[in-house]
Amino acid sequence: AVVSTQSTGDVKFSSCGRYMVSRDYLTVKLWDLNMDSKPIETYNVHEYLRSKLCSLYENDCIFDKFEVVWGGTSDSILTGSYNNFFRIFDRTNNRDACFEASRESAKPRTQLKHCKVGVGPKRRKDEISVEMLDFNHKILHAHWHPKENVIAVAATNNLYLFTGK
Fold first, then answer.
1. Closest CA to 92 of 77, 76, 103
2. pTM score > 0.90 for this model?
3. Which of 5, 13, 99, 153 could form a disulfide with 142 if both were Cys (CB 3.0 to 4.6 A apart)?
4. pLDDT at position 28, please?
5. Dihedral sign (CA 99, 104, 106, 112)
6. Measuring CA to CA, which residue among 25, 22, 27, 18 is closest to residue 4?
């Protein structure tokens, strides 16, 4: 059965085998294999880039293939983005968070800071402008430890390990 006609960059099965997660350029989709007509959940990864799709096509960013990975218990999903950002979607609490992989965030006992991208002239002080995103720094590869709350993300020439509680 054909479940998607989008340009899919990655796909993974859950540990229980009932679900599949897919990643296209703008979204992560969760599929129940017992219901293949449409995804049961859709998460926007970087919706703020929708208005820039033409320029992203011109500089070949639109062809970037971001991996998507399951958390150990399949309650969470992780995928990469630009500016060395990565997103975690918490399915249990219906929340998502964006973090940045950087040398500062990789120091021992450093808590990851949430990242927010602002669109338009009015944005909050804690937001980065979509115009300031670095499209050369991206997280294309990641992995979540199957038993521990440890994630690995590959950002350009660096590999980062983050441990949660």
1. 76
2. no
3. 153
4. 95
5. negative
6. 22
